[in-house]
Known about the structure:
By secondary structure, this protein is an all-beta fold. The chain has one domain: ApaG domain (Immunoglobulin-like), CATH 2.60.40. 0% of the residues lie in helices and 61% in strands. The chain starts with 6 loop residues before the first strand and ends in a 6-residue tail after the last strand. Residues 8-132 form the ApaG domain. This is Protein ApaG. It holds the Pfam family DUF525.
Amino acid sequence: xxxxxxxxxxxxxxxxxxxxxxxxxxxxxxxxxxxxxxxxxxxxxxxxxxxxxxxxxxxxxxxxxxxxxxxxxxxxxxxxxxxxxxxxxxxxxxxxxxxxxxxxxxxxxxxxxxxxxxxxxxxxxxxxxxxx
Length: 132
């Protein structure tokens, strides 16, 4: 399945693209649980290699509740991207409401140890009206 990237942000020559989909089969609205899957592509259009070291997410639910999630790498990896390379991964997000949003940043390291903070674009999480 080819991802249709709905959201993108470029910082320091690194583009982060996001495609997000609601998963009704993983959701239980009657129990107050909604679930989305998101596909991220990180593209290195800079002129030097970079390694993705950490991530920070700000997840907001429909009630205004905010969760911060920090961790090493993405889905257990700390990919190194040469100029012109991209890294794709898929992950998911549960919420206690039928809508919300996500945004954040990655910290990447250059070969000399210099850190670069790269923005993950804001993207909404919205279940279809039939799943409310």
